[in-house]
Design goal:
The protein is an alpha/beta fold. The chain has one domain: 3-Layer(aba) Sandwich (Rossmann fold). Helix content is 36%, strand content 14%. The protein has a 7-stranded mixed sheet with strand order 1-3-2-4-5-6-7, with helices on both faces. α1 packs across α5, α2 packs parallel to α3 and α3 packs parallel to α4. The protein is globular. The protein starts with 8 loop residues before the first strand and ends in an 8-residue tail after the last strand. Bound molecules: NADP nicotinamide-adenine-dinucleotide phosphate (NAP).
């Protein structure tokens, strides 16, 4: 058995391969760590692969060729490990950075910030669907979880603000719903969902953590999401589901 770059591959004796995209983020790193800790326990995976802008190969949503190259690397690792991709978790996302901050008012709407937030929260995951969902086997349980956010729920929007982030996550939810239908035709036992992780202590949320808000550590949030993913049934495919397993409104 050929082992890949130890930086982004951990192996056990179980069958099935898990992949985390956005592995350099607070939640993504905790997901990789938690999956790797499962070791040889029931529900564990034989290998946990991780991808992000800093891995080898790198995966950057600003460059579709890198997404394609990363998908080919995963296909090759699955072949080498004689395992099938059974879990895909996409934990990438963007709220604030050099291009801007979430808007409090329509007066702050900015084309560059909107492009960036849509690029990372919606277009990037769409490219992941294009290049990675076909790596799932055509038979047997497979689960794809795209980390979204409750603020992307249109039905739940009572406060306003955060135009770009909300809209980009709503777009992601529609992409996930649409992909879940196509994925169900490809493999009748495959499940594809959007996930709300709750407020998690990461670089993304830290500037906005308010007193009174329940902020959970990333390892706890990762464990919650993996429990939710393990308990999903076919009836859940296409839904937006929170870290407690509750379905949220669109
Ligand atoms: N933290 C919260 O309270 C909270 C609440 C609700 C929803 N969420 C969602 O949870 C997910 C994880 O966020 P986090 O809190 O872990 O934030 P984070 O620590 O800031 O992580 C951001 C992630 O986005 C990835 N990313 C950024 N730009 C990218 C690009 N151009 N191409 C590819 N990947 C890119 C990074 O991957 P690499 O660094 O590996 O490239 C990193 O994994 C996001 O979808 C976020 O919207 C978080």
């Amino acid at each position: 058995m050929q082992l890949g770059d130890p930086m982004n591959e951990k192996t056990t004796r179980q069958s099935g391969i898990a992949l985390v995209i956005g592995a350099g983020g607070g939640l993504g790193a905790a997901l990789v760590e938690r999956l790797a800790q499962s070791g040889d326990s029931v529900g564990a995976y034989q290998a946990v692969l991780s991808l992000g802008r800093s891995t080898h190969p790198p995966l950057d949503y600003g460059d579709e060729a890198s997404v394609l190259a990363a998908s080919r690397w995963v296909a090759a690792r699955c072949a080498d490990l004689q395992g099938e991709l059974r879990l895909l978790v996409v934990a990438s996302g963007f709220l604030h950075g050099e291009t801007g901050q979430p808007e409090r008012s329509w007066t702050q709407l900015d084309a560059d910030y909107l492009s960036q937030v849509f690029r990372i929260n919606a277009i990037g995951p769409a490219l992941v669907m294009k290049h990675f969902l076909p790596l799932f086997p055509k038979h047997g349980r497979c689960v794809a979880g795209f980390v979204s956010a409750k603020v992307g729920s249109i039905g739940d929007n009572a406060l306003g603000g955060w135009y770009g982030y909300r809209a980009s996550k709503a777009a992601l939810n529609q992409l996930v719903k649409t992909a879940s239908i196509e994925l169900g035709r490809y493999n009748r036992q495959a499940i594809c969902v959007s996930l709300h992780p709750g407020t998690v202590d990461t670089a993304l949320s830290r500037p906005f953590a308010k007193t009174g808000l329940t902020v959970r550590p990333a390892p706890e949030a990762a464990e919650n999401l993996l429990d939710v993913l393990a308990a999903l049934t076919l009836a859940d495919t296409g839904a937006l589901i929170d870290y407690q397993g509750h379905r949220l409104p669109w």
